[in-house]
Amino acid sequence: MTSHRKWLPFVYLAPVLVILVLFVYYPIFSNVYYSFFDWGSFSNTMHFTGLSNFINLFKDSVFFTALKNNIYYAIISEIILVGGGLVLAAILEDKLVRRYATFLRTIYFLPVLISITVIALLFEFFYNPQTGLLNKLLESIGLDGLTRAWLGNGDTAIFAVIAMSQWQSLGYVAMLFIISIQKIPSELYEAARIDGAGKVKQFFHITVPQVKEMAFVATIMTLTQAFTVFNEPYILTGGGPGHSSEVLTTYLYHSAFNEDAMGYASAIATVILAITLIISVVQLKVFRSGEGD
Amino acid sequence: MRKVVGMIACIFVFAFILTGCSGFTSSSGSSGDGDKITLKFMHRWPKEPEKSYLDKVVKEFEKKNPNIKIQTEAVLNDSYKEKIRVLLGTNHPPDIFFSWSGEFAHNIVRGNKALDLTSYYNKDKTWSDKIIEPTMESYRFDGKMYGVPWMMDAKLFFYNKDIFNKLGLKPPKTFKQLIAVSKKLKDKGYTPIAFGNKEGWPAGHYIGTLNRRTVPADVIKKDHIRSQGTFDDPGYIKALEKLQKLNDVAFNKNSNALKYDFSRQAFTSGKAAMDYMETIEIGDLPDIGFELGTFNFPAVEDGKGDQKIISGAPEGFMISSKTKHPDAAMKFLEFLTNKENGKKLVKDVKYLSSVKNTVTKDNSTPIMRKAQQEILHANKLAPWIDTGLDIRIADAYMKDMQKMLNGEMAPKDVMKDVQKEAKRVRVSAK
């Protein structure tokens, strides 16, 4: 009887496994396979070209621009979303503002609920060089020198896109931290107060160590998002002007659907896969060590 | 017992998955049942007024041919490009599908996805003789016809006659005059030419025309052949310099941050005096409070190219090489492009039909007739660079021109990138 039962769990697992293999693992492996070919959706044949897609990729300046932009995305998101989100959460959970906490939390969380397409269109108006709110605001406070075509300038376009992402996601990350802060026993803060620790000290010596686990989660999450981001730059700038605000995914899309270079696009996808794989391996390692604490 | 239930549940799930998969093959409905033929027709206008126009034509056709049923599917522009690429790669592509002319069509033809229609053109002369010749040119590859042009779109300068009259200006005939006119307009506080280039292709339209003016026609012709394009004629750099000049003197600032639609808004609101527009946009113009004029892109004085040619292209339809009913599909396209439907196209959609003598006093506005005259006068259409050239070359152009307009790149560096891409295309075309 028991020997029969041994394979029974696998029967239950099989349907999910089939779906997973069919729709997740098979595409991943076939993508890696396709990256060794030169092919397009119109062409009848696929030429095996070995590593040439990857060699071309590492000679391609646009690829490095895209990678650099993704790294900017990652660094800025870590600082603003994880760092800023934690500070914001701590302030919202502080006794002084607790009366308005629910209201403020809703305000900060609201952008998370709006469709990214709507937000991108809103920010397009916001950044408009002639009628946009941002330039008008700068003019009205006498900072005319700072006004520029935010999305039309190669130096500022990617940062304008990143800024929008930060605005949208801050509330979400802060919410994660708020949940985690609420779990901290209040005795810790009371004890610290009695010992004469101020708000800042309490933050660094109680709040930060206590939300460490959540900070890991938030770090990995924003990191992965920074390397797979697509909607924001695609809608807001389309990678332009030139290729200055291109990220890996928009360049992939561009190669696949504008240039019909499917093999090349597959190679970019493989690189993205490698990056996110490394991040998730690090995540697994860190969490395993976290369990031991 | 529990085990049995579990097993049955699993079998159900598997059966569900398997039938789900096989569903793809059984639902291909392009072949008809009995005598009734069903044709799949795919175009890029889920929007009005094109949609109702095409629906009406389909209905009329079905009434006249009761044994043919047409199944229409419409997907908007960019999504259409992607979808048709995917569908043509499958075993059940639509029988009749929309295609831009030039390189987009050529790409489909090279992949053997389009049916050779030459014999139909020769067989039914009464129909094919009524199609305007320059529109046919864009669907002709290696001397064979692969598509049916339906309408034509051309790029012309539109200008605000009220402003021009007030300042005593005349529509410029040469590039120097255009610059002089622009300077005067700017002095009076107008934006001479409205220009939004966030998408990249609007600058492509300018350079497409400028190249034709400054580069000899045979060189352009050679560069458009994928296996031979070098783009090293000095005329190309000159064309970019002219564009730079326009950017300095005539365009509004920050064009890269403004969308193409912006230019039409600035023009119709009376802030800008000129706009380089496509004739298909005539239908999109709101009720404007001024008189509209139009002129061809001015001649470049020392240019070595064709000084009359207009950037533009017909748009039309192709028939899949895998269709089971080529005669029925062609019958529909001939019906779509007969004189009566051509006239209705002008009236209902405000497009310039590819059929001769369809723009008349009783179905069009004066500006449409003027635009039509300009096209017939030029008698040649130059394909857009983003559909006429290999997309890699066009893309290098469009991306780099954005940088050039921002002052981050010089014309000769733009051409270096274009030449580099042209080389890649040459290699892959061999």
From TrEMBL, chain A:
Region forming the signal peptide: none
Boundaries of every ABC transmembrane type-1 domain copy: 67-283
InterPro entries reported for this sequence: ABC_transporter_permease (IPR051393), MetI-like (IPR000515), MetI-like_sf (IPR035906)
TM region(s), chain numbering: 7-28, 71-91, 103-127, 157-179, 261-284
GO biological process: transmembrane transport
Localization per Swiss-Prot or TrEMBL: Cell membrane
Topology of this chain in the membrane: Multi-pass membrane protein
Keyword Lipid metabolism: no
GO cellular component, one term: plasma membrane
PROSITE patterns: ABC_TM1
Keywords: Cell membrane, Membrane, Transmembrane, Transmembrane helix, Transport
Similarity-based family: Belongs to the binding-protein-dependent transport system permease family.
Protein's name in the database: Carbohydrate ABC transporter membrane protein 1 (CUT1 family)
Organism: Scopulibacillus darangshiensis
Taxonomic placement: Bacteria, Bacillati, Bacillota, Bacilli, Bacillales
UniProtKB/TrEMBL annotation, chain B:
Top-level division of the source organism's lineage: Bacteria
Cross-referenced Pfam families: SBP_bac_1 (PF01547)
Gene3D superfamilies documented for this protein: Periplasmic binding protein-like II
Keyword Signal in record: yes
InterPro entries tied to this protein: Bact_solute-bd_prot1 (IPR050490), SBP (IPR006059)
Position of the signal peptide: 1-22
Record key words, sorted: Signal, Transport
Keyword Signal: yes
Record family assignment: Belongs to the bacterial solute-binding protein 1 family.
Name assigned to this protein: Carbohydrate ABC transporter substrate-binding protein (CUT1 family)
Organism taxonomic ancestry: Bacteria, Bacillati, Bacillota, Bacilli, Bacillales
